[in-house]
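Late entry, evening session. Most of the bench is empty. Finally got around to the prediction I had been postponing all week. Sequence below, unchanged from the version circulated by S.P.
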Amino acid sequence: MSRYLLRRLAEAVISIWGVLTIVFFVGRLLGDPVSLLVPIGASTADMDRLRAGLGLDLPLWQQYLTYMGQVLKGDFGTSFVFNQPAMQVVLERMPATIELAMTALAIGIVIGGTAGIIAALNKGRWPETLVLGFAMIGQATPTFWLGIMLILFFAVQLGWVPTGGYGTVQHLLLPACTVAIFISASIARLLRSSMLDTLREDYVRTAKAKGLMPRTILLWHTLRNALIPVITMIGILVGELLGGAVVTETVFAWPGVGRLIYQAIDQKDFPVIQAGVVLVATIFVLANFLVDLLYAVLDPRIKEGRA
């Protein structure tokens, strides 16, 4: 077990280092941010002084080494726009992102899990057709279009909730439901398929032959094993959602990390871009690391290298 954990941990560290490197060099491709930071009509000398103060006049390799050294100390630099530590700016937006992500995920798991189980247990009948239709539409509908339609109907026409913003349960409902529809559709479709495959396994037929109660067979033999691919997808979704649902946060003016990174890219705010993307990547890697640990719990053969 310890070798399994060490291997997964090493892979996580290498992944984070790779993201740190990629985001540094890709960020430099956005262009020179100095022109956005100086007043209109600033002289070339003023721009050169600011560029030197930000360390942007150094060779690229030297900027990279300085950047990596600062990151190892937990210093991602100071935001060009907010004039605050970049990671502090990003972390201030995390509560809003966590609130949206966890609410949407909870709704999606409940609806999608229930629908997937119902579809698997009713193969070839109308409940399965209904669930598959919902899953197809939910996965195919663009998030930005769905968000706009929900705003037009529930906020503009009915006036039940605000069109956007942050602070109350009413502000949370529409963006959470927008994200949850895609999540529930994905979970329902995958869980149905996984359960149908599991129901055909020999150990399930053996459990039925032994006369075990249907509930025991469903929960202990079928659902437990069918959850492995679903947990993989949920781990990926957690990483994506905690990294900020950029489109949803933008449509609903939700002050989360995704919207912040989008604005930082537009403003060429390198420190915030780097801090935001690194935080997102770290969350994504940790989520997948936890998924690996859950694999080992659900199927001990995985940690022993037999599966």
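Two things to note before I forget:
The CA atoms of residues 23 and 274 lie 6 Å apart.
The radius of gyration is 24 Å.
Will write this up properly tomorrow.
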